[in-house]
Amino acid sequence: MMLTLQVPEATPSLNAFSNPSGRRWKYLRLRRHWKVAIKDALLEARAATRTPLAWPRPPKEFVLVQVTRYAPAHHWLDADNLAGGMKPLLDALKAHEVIADDAPTAIDLVPRQEVSPHAQPSRWTEIRLSIDPPLLREEHA
């Protein structure tokens, strides 16, 4: 079972909400923003198929979460900023019950970066969720 969501902006850098001054408010603002963005992406995915989404809410199985951040090459993040910036997105997926939990026992997070194609907006995020067989999980471990 697979679910693909597209958000018309790139995930933030960990630096966007980890500096000491006012970081709690920055993170809360980002979390609210990504909660709305994920809700819109879920509605768009449902409208594209014209049927209710066939996704368990919340799934009881292990979920593979592949997040691809598309941005121009000069806006790429280093590995720790890329992975840390996924926190607001994962919290939003959890809030909408797309994933049961963001713990390593419930999901396998695979963050990636790609250069934006010229035909697409310069920055966006694609989230592919799958309830996969154990063989696929071993590849990403």
How would you briefly describe this protein structure?
By secondary structure, the chain is of the alpha+beta class. 38% of the residues lie in helices and 22% in strands.
Task: Describe the protein.
The longest helix is centred in the N-terminal third of the chain and has 27 residues, at 23-49. The chain has 5 helices and 4 strands; from the N terminus they run βααβααββα. By secondary structure, it is an alpha+beta fold. The mean pLDDT is 84. A 4-stranded mixed sheet has the order 1-4-2-3. α2 (23-49) crosses α4.
Physical arrangement of strands within the biggest beta sheet: 1-4-2-3
- Which geometry do the CA atoms define? globular
Q: How many DSSP helices?
A: 5
Low-confidence stretches: none
Determine the mean pLDDT. Answer: 84
Our measurement of the CA-to-CA distance between the termini, rounded to an integer number of angstroms, reads 20 Å
N to C succession of SSEs = EHHEHHEEH
Number of E-state strands = 4
Helicity range: 25-40%
Largest sheet: 4 strands, mixed
What keyword list fits this structure?
141 residues, alpha+beta, four-stranded mixed β-sheet, 4 strands
Topology:
Elements: E1 2-7, H1 15-18, H2 23-49, E2 63-71, H3 79-84, H4 87-95, E3 107-115, E4 124-130, H5 134-140
Parallel strand pairs: 2-3
Antiparallel strand pairs: 1-4, 2-4
Helix pairs in contact: 2-4
